Amino acid sequence: MNKISTVDQVIAKLEDGMTLMVAGFLGCGAPESILDAIIEKGTKNLTVICNDTSFPDKGVGRLIASKQVKKVITSHIGTNPETGRQMNEGEIEVILTPQGTIAEQVRAAGAGLGGVITPTGVGTIVEEGKQTIEIKGRKYLVEEPLKADLAILHASKADKKGNLVYDLSAINFNPLMAMAADTVAVEAEEIVEVGDLDPNFVHTPHIFVDMIVKGGQNG
């Protein structure tokens, strides 16, 4: 299977109303070229799963600013005032989730688990409407897995088979999201031949990757 693709082929997988995972931490490790194409295409009513909504002019924050997102599941919106404005105006639904919890929810989807249990959020508004259980006298929330139709990642290097290497903190949510979507597309700064990557330093094995595009460097 040839995984080398164009950005147009990637965004053809994304239709209005789908769920999209976007890697990145305040824009670091975000697939900016793929995001450019989604904005240009105008795909709308998206549910987006991400660590944070970055800034209005960077990373997933640009999808928020272009009003293509109807719902975002995220842990932080404070650096993007446009997310807060749209939330307050009722233009977007924001599900604020503790960062560790959202990471585990994504991981649970990739691992095929039925959910995760956590004490984080017990006794707060996070608990509202959620199933709870008690174990050895301690109360926990049951959080459901988070899965997407399409996950878009960013890697510093990819080989033609789809093995991925991330750069320093740009690794963030990329490996977890690679396991938790029906289709996984990666924007790689450099694409190398199979065998050129040291297997000891591969962060995401090729089995999780469906599409690879050549992109420019970003945060």
Task: Describe what you observe in this structure.
By secondary structure, this protein is α/β, with parallel strands linked by helices. It has a single domain, classed as Glutaconate Coenzyme A-transferase. It has six helices and eleven strands. Strands 1, 2, 3, 4, 8, 9, 10 and 11 form an eight-stranded mixed sheet that branches. It has a three-stranded antiparallel sheet with strand order 5-7-6.
Ordered list of secondary-structure elements with their pairings:
Blueprint: H1 7-11, E1 19-22, H2 32-41, E2 46-49, H3 61-65, E3 69-74, H4 81-88, E4 93-96, H5 99-111, E5 116-118, E6 132-135, E7 138-143, E8 148-159, E9 164-165, H6 174-177, E10 181-192, E11 211-214
Parallel strand pairs: 1-2, 1-8, 2-3, 3-4, 8-10, 10-11
Antiparallel strand pairs: 5-7, 6-7, 8-9
